[in-house]
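Researcher: Structure for this, please.
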Amino acid sequence: MRQNISGAEWRVMQVLWECGDSMTSAEIVKKIKSESERSPRTIKTLLQRLVAKGFVDFTIDPADSRVYHYTPKISEAECIKRENKDFLSLYYKGDVSGMLARFIGDSDLTSEQIKELSALLDAKREGTL
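Model: Predicted structure, token format:
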């Protein structure tokens, strides 16, 4: 069974992706704590879940065995691709055109946005997207 990322876990992943390098749990906690009410314990639990799910890896600091360095095992682009595929499968039975029709029908689009969507479809048809 494929593991998904919760909204709270997604924020932890974003922090790791934004950093572009490994981060200690203290650095991650500091970053997330500055923008939310999550406790350090909750943030560390989210990190543990992401490790268990295989989205994040860690190394132990050789100078201090109490310090863990976390890195994402999956890129943001790959993660979004997986989440999109799961969303499409779950809610639209894999029917991309049905999903797009629903989104377009339910949205207030400007003429500029309609042109952009049309250009994307043209590029897809021509094989340039």
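Researcher: Any notable elements?
Model: DSSP finds six helices and three strands in the chain. Helices lie at 7-19, 25-33, 40-53, 76-92, 96-106, 111-126.
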